[in-house]
Amino acid sequence: MDIELENKKVQEARVEDIRLSNEIADWPQLKKQVPACFEDSACRKEGLIGKCLNPGKINSSCGYEKPQQISLLVIQPRDIKVVHQEKFLSFLRKLFPGLQVNFVDSDSAAGKSWIVRTQAKLLPVYLIAKEADTQGGFKDIKDFAELKDDYYCLSPRLSGGLIFIGRPRIANTLDVFMGTKGNKGSEVLSLLRDLRAGHKELGIKLHYLAIETQNGFAAPGGIAELEEDMRQVCIAKYQPDKLWDYALCRFKNQDSSWWEVCAEQFGINPIAIKKCALSKEGLDLLRENTGLNKELEMSIGPVFLVNNNEVYAAKNFSRVEELEKLLGLVPHVKKDKD
User: Fold this and answer.
1) Helices (H), the chain
2) Are 50 and 64 in contact (CB under 8 A)?
3) Within a 10 A sphere around the Cβ of 166, how many other Cβ atoms?
4) Whole-angstrom Cα distance, residue 117 to residue 143?
5) Which of 3.40.50.1820, 3.40.30.10, 3.40.50.300, 3.30.70.870 would CATH assign to domain 173-327?
6) What is the pLDDT of residues 228-281, one digit of tens each?
7) For residue 152, what are the β-bridge partners?
8) H or E segment and range at residue 310
9) Which of 13, 155, 162, 314 is the one with CA 20 to 30 A from 84?
10) Do the strands 99-105 and 211-213 form a parallel or antiparallel pair, or are they unpaired?
11) Are strands 173-177 and 203-207 parallel, antiparallel or unpaired?
12) Bridge partners (DSSP) listed for residue 151
């Protein structure tokens, strides 16, 4: 156990199982004095399920059995590589050691049939056989599993999604869903500003996370974030070339209510922006800005919609080169100054 203290108070504690040696269990002199195992996790053999018999007792032992085979169908385009897919499959294999993965082309008759039956909006679609609910690991995914015929369809909230079904690909477009408050906003905007500077052909549009209800608009960060959303959609209309610098300034000073300081710093007329933000025009602009959120059911961020049909979490990208590759752009080469 590792314990971190600050001012004589426990700030963080970590518990980790440490196996001293794979050979200790085979030492004859120890077998008579130390239990072979205390819990199931101590019994490990690749491809087998281990169980500790008589745990903690001198006569304890590890028993092994072949796992039940569980089918997993993955519906996705044949020629696409899904980001972090192997990590998710490894997670499932730990829960279900007998997992048998079969990929199904989403353009095939079988793939199209499953898309219709599951009413999926995102690819890949992960379908795990109903027999999975007899396994202990099922408890870790049951809240994300919906039974469809003989398979459980796993929610994109668990598996992640990549391609919106039925949306056409529009090259050189990047829609960004993010709030005007939050810890990661400054990093994301800085990255996008650098990307934008090297690719004038790329259309980048920010979509804020405000949601319209029967009682009006609401934002994750409350009224302060909603007011900032209103100001930024007005700046995007009247002084779009100033938006990026202003938005970055506000992220760096987001706890301050003195937004006018950032506005004046970059030549934005605060009186005109305030008039727009407090009017019906501001509401209409925000409604238009968040229309795509409603269509795609986007409520969290930062998230990238790439070329109109591929979705990625922004946290997975930290360099311009990574986004250029994702968007299919020719890398921008900076010219040396004379």
Assistant:
1) 28-31, 85-95, 109-118, 156-159, 185-198, 223-238, 243-252, 259-265, 270-277, 280-289, 291-296, 320-327
2) yes
3) 8
4) 20
5) 3.40.30.10
6) 999 999 999 999 999 999 999 999 999 899 999 999 999 999 999 999 999 999
7) 128, 147
8) strand 310-313
9) 13
10) unpaired
11) parallel
12) 129, 148
CA 52/CA 54 separation, integer angstroms? 6
Rounded distance, CA 174 to CA 191, Å?
13
Mean pLDDT of 29-37: 74
Helix (H, G, I), strand (E, B) or coil at 166: coil
Token representation of residue 98: 């007998």
pLDDT range class, residue 338, cuts 50, 70, 90: very low
Residue 195 CB partners (closer than 8 Å, separation 6+): 174, 202, 204, 320, 323, 324
Same CATH fold assignment for domains 70-164 and 173-327:
yes
Pair 118, 127: CB distance under 8 Å: yes
Q: What is the CATH number of domain 70-164?
A: 3.40.30
Domain ranges of the chain: 23-65, 70-164, 173-327
Assigned token pair, 113: 């049939």
Report the 3 state secondary structure along 77-127: CCCCCCCCHHHHHHHHHHHCCCEEEEEEECCCHHHHHHHHHHCCCEECEEE
